[in-house]
Design brief:
It catalyses: Random endo-hydrolysis of N-acetyl-beta-D-glucosaminide (1->4)-beta-linkages in chitin and chitodextrins. Keywords: Carbohydrate metabolism, Chitin degradation, Glycosidase, Hydrolase, Polysaccharide degradation, Signal. Belongs to the glycosyl hydrolase 18 family. The protein has about 475 residues and is an alpha/beta fold. It has two domains: about 325 residues, Alpha-Beta Barrel (TIM Barrel), CATH 3.20.20; about 120 residues, no CATH class. The chain is built from twelve helices and 15 strands. It has an eight-stranded parallel β-barrel with strand order 1-2-4-5-6-7-8-15, surrounded by five helices. Strands 9-14-13-12 form a four-stranded antiparallel beta sheet, with no helix packed on it. It has a two-stranded antiparallel sheet with strand order 10-11. Strand 10 and strand 11 form a beta hairpin. The chain starts with about 30 loop residues before the first helix and ends with a helix. The N terminus and C terminus are likely disordered.
């Protein structure tokens, strides 16, 4: 996740499940037993966690408190204060952030019965991670600095967002071949320092942890023994500054050669041995803007499935302000209910990647983003894989409807409205999971592939032609 340029299941208070580990008759056993049990168990709230990163530098537009315009506490079970940065001696707040906001953030979370964690690192704040990991003494000192910061403000947990372990991120980070191995040595020291009641979280790339050979580690099981919650940052897969074509910010399925996807990332992490029930699927609340070469959308085919998500780009691309979902509406590019394009844009649904996009032929601007439909589909997928929940980057992006879609997806009851079903075929040529208001989708097996999706599209599209 970026800082500061950009960088959930909407649960009512009565439905929020506290994040705790189940108690046994051995609660008073030795600490070693508690740690051993923690390493092999799942949190009781796993499967229903909706969380968001709160960008503290935007406190003037979304405050940390409980008043109107503040962090959406009612829509989240966990909240991540973003961000604290590494320094040569430990951690600190970057410029523009105040300790007063931290105090309000934590007090508000606890007042609402939510868990408050702080994230250290991020795109611009990961410079010194590697230096703090090079010896046992330095690892212990860094663990103590994190615990001091946590206990000072009463946070319930610590999120390590090292961008990136074993490889460069922002360009100024210290990087060593032994970063991954040293980080694994650090985790038990951190646990010993903070105790067993404090959450240890980590935010990791979609591609996994980079090892000494430059490749993603084949096994992450040992990391999973120490990390309570791991956010897979399964977004920024396409952006105009590094992509050869347009593409979704977070495609659910791989629909283009040499492309990543949410499905591929989750399956890779699970295959590497990380416990699924401790994984939070990171989902975006912001967009990416591209400019296409043509005024018309071209259709490509991947493994027999048609998609319009990958368009040829102009040589010169516009600035990419990463507008939030709410920003698309306030800018006049998307209708207030998110169902249609506006201001010269048409909203399209790509059935292969299961994501929407906006396109304006007049300006040749193509905008990728996520909405209630795509977030609901991602949450359904997270549920099918037994994940702990979803984590939004960031809290300023999603609307209430988007949060609600995440909640229903994790419950397995995500559905769409009859009003959306009447959407024009031009705005949305085909959709998946389209049902009437009084119908709900119960998902017991969500092992979808683009090929299976294509079969469903053909049936749905035909039935709609009859309706229209």
């Amino acid at each position: 996740m970026l800082f500061p340029s950009l960088s959930l299941l909407a649960l009512a208070a009565s439905l929020v499940t506290p994040f705790t580990y189940a108690h046994t008759a051995h609660d008073h056993a030795a600490a070693e037993y508690s740690l051993e049990r923690r390493a092999t168990s799942c949190p009781s709230g796993s499967g229903s966690i909706v969380s968001s990163f709160w960008p503290a530098w935007l406190s003037s537009t979304q405050g940390p408190g409980t008043t109107s315009g503040s962090f959406p506490w009612s829509k989240n079970t966990h909240a991540f204060y973003f961000v604290v940065v590494t320094t040569s001696t430990g951690v600190s707040l970057p410029g523009g952030q105040t300790t007063a906001d931290i105090t309000t953030f934590v007090k508000s979370a606890h007042k609402k019965g939510r868990k408050a964690l702080f994230t250290v690192g991020g795109w611009s704040g990961s410079v010194y991670f590697s230096d703090h990991m090079i010896s046992s003494a330095k690892r212990l000192a860094f663990a103590k600095s994190l615990e001091t910061f946590r206990s000072t403000y009463g946070f319930d947990g610590i999120d390590i967002d090292w961008e990136f372990i074993g490889r460069q991120g922002a360009g100024t980070n210290k990087v060593r071949a032994k970063d991954a191995a040293n980080f694994l040595l650090f985790l038990p020291q951190l646990r010993s320092t903070v105790g067993t009641s404090i959450l240890i979280a980590a935010s990791m790339p979609a591609s996994g942890i980079t090892g000494a050979d430059g490749a993603s580690l084949a096994s992450t099981a040992k990391y999973g023994a120490h990390i309570d919650l791991l956010t897979i940052m399964a977004y920024d897969m396409y952006a105009n500054s590094w992509s050869a074509t347009t593409g979704p910010n977070a495609p659910l399925y791989t629909c283009n050669a040499n492309s990543g996807s949410v499905q591929a990332s989750v399956e890779q992490w699970i295959a590497s041995g990380f416990p699924a029930c401790r994984i939070l699927l990171g989902v975006p609340g912001y967009s990416h803007v591209f400019r296409t070469k043509s005024t018309k959308l071209a259709t490509t085919t991947f493994r027999g499935v048609k998609t319009t998500a990958f368009q040829t780009l102009l040589a010169t691309q516009p600035s990419d302000p990463t507008t939030t979902y709410n920003g698309l509406i306030s800018n006049g590019w998307l209708s207030s209910d998110g169902t249609k394009g506006a201001g010269g844009y048409t909203r399209y649904w790509d059935a292969c990647t299961r994501t929407p996009f906006l396109f304006s032929p007049a300006t040749k601007r193509w905008i990728s983003y996520d909405d209630a439909s795509s977030i609901g589909a991602k949450a359904l997928y997270a549920r099918s894989k037994g994940l702990a929940g979803v984590n939004f980057y960031d809290s300023t992006g999603p609307s209430g409807a988007v949060y609600d879609a995440a909640t229903k997806g994790l419950k397995g009851t995500f559905s769409t409205t009859a009003a959306r079903r009447k959407r024009s075929l031009q705005d949305e040529p085909w959709r998946l999971d389209e049902e009437d208001d009084d119908e709900e989708i119960y998902v017991d097996d969500f092992d979808f592939t683009p090929e299976l999706a294509s079969e469903e599209v053909e049936e749905t599209y035909s039935s709609w032609e009859e309706d229209v």
